[in-house]
Amino acid sequence: MAAWLEHLAHERRLSPRTLEAYGHIGRTWLAFLERHRGEPQRLSDLGTVTAAEVRAHLADRRSGDKGLSARSLSQTLSAIRTFHGFLDRRCGVPTPQMALVRGPKVKPSLPRPVTPDQAKGLLVEPGLDPDAEPWEALRDAAVLSLLYGCGLRISEALSLVRSDSPLAETIRIRGKGGKTRMVPVLPAVRQAVDRAVAAQPFPLEPMDALFRARRGGPLSARHVQATVQRLRGRLGLPASATPHALRHSFATHLLGAGADLRSIQELLGHASLSTTQRYTAVDAAHLLGAYAAAHPRA
C-alpha cells in the first residue's frame, strides 16, 4: 500500500487530496477482504480476488444511511483497479477477474456557470459591503478577479506570493499534479491585485502568501467560499454561484465568444480535452434556451 501511494505521488503526480482519497479507498478495500475472507491477506492472496468480491465491496459501500453515490462508487472502483494494476506491473500479482467488473453508470454533470452580469456583480459587490474593512474588500475583489479573469482555482489564486506582485502580463501557475501552465493576466485583474496589495496593512517577505486574512495569516479557501456565499445572498444568486463557478464562467464565456477548445484547455490546465468539452454542452444549452425564448415558432 505504501509503495502504491508513493508511486501515485511521485510518478503519477496526483494531488494531495486525491492521494488521501485513494489511500482511504485502498485501506477500506483491504479491510473488507480481511473481514470477508476471515484472515489477514498476503500479497499472493490479492491475486485471487474475484469479480464477485469486488461487487460485494461496492454493494457494501452503497448500502446504509451514508451510502456512496454512483460517482463515488465509480471513483472507488477506479482506485481499486489502479491498485491491482500496480500489483500486476510491479509485484507480479495479476488479478484477471478485475476486468469482469463494470462500474455504475454515472450521469455526467455539466458545469454551472454564472452569467457575465452576475460575474461582474460578484466582483463589484465586495466594495459595497459596509461590514468589511476597505483593504479586505479590495482583497476579496482581487481574489475573485483572478478566478473569473484568469480561470484559476481557489488554491491557485491563494498560492501567489509577494514576489509575484506586481503581476506580469502572463503568470506561471502550478496546478493539479504539479503541472504548470502560463496564464495571461488582463489589465483589470492586474489593477485589482495591485490595489489589494497596496492597501493591505501587513509587511510581507518575498515568499509570503500575497493575500492575508484579517489577523495577518494566509487567506484560506474557506474564507473565499464564505465570502461568495454571503455575496450571492445579497445579489439573489443561486447556490450554484460558488467560487469555482467563476472558473466555469471563465471557460464558458470564452467559448461563447469564439475561443477554441484547445486554447481553453491550456488556460484551465486540463490534462484531457474531454474535460474541457463539457463546456460545449453548456454553451449549446444556452443557445437553445435563447432560441426557445426568442423564436416565434419555438
Describe the structure.
This protein is mainly alpha-helical and 298 residues long. Helix content is 56%, strand content 3%. The protein has helices at residues 2-10, 16-37, 51-62, 70-91, 116-124, 134-150, 154-158, 187-199, 221-235, 243-256, 261-268, 273-276, 278-294, and strands at residues 170-174, 180-184. The chain has a two-stranded antiparallel sheet. The longest helix is centred in the first third of the chain and has 22 residues, at 16-37. It is globular, with a radius of gyration of 23 Å. The N and C termini lie far apart (58 Å). The mean pLDDT is 87.
Describe the secondary structure blueprint for this structure.
Layout: H1 2-10, H2 16-37, H3 51-62, H4 70-91, H5 116-124, H6 134-150, H7 154-158, E1 170-174, E2 180-184, H8 187-199, H9 221-235, H10 243-256, H11 261-268, H12 273-276, H13 278-294
Antiparallel strand pairs: 1-2
Helix pairs in contact: 2-4, 3-4, 5-6, 6-8, 6-10, 10-13
Keyphrases for this structure?
single chain; 298 residues; mainly alpha
Average pLDDT reading: 87
- How much helical structure, as a percent, in the residues? 55-70%
Number of helices: 13
* Main sheet makeup: 2 strands, antiparallel
- Based on CA inertia axes, which overall geometry fits? globular
Share of β-strand residues: under 5%
The protein's oligomeric status is: single chain
Question: What is the helix/strand order?
Answer: HHHHHHHEEHHHHHH
Intertermini distance: 58 Å
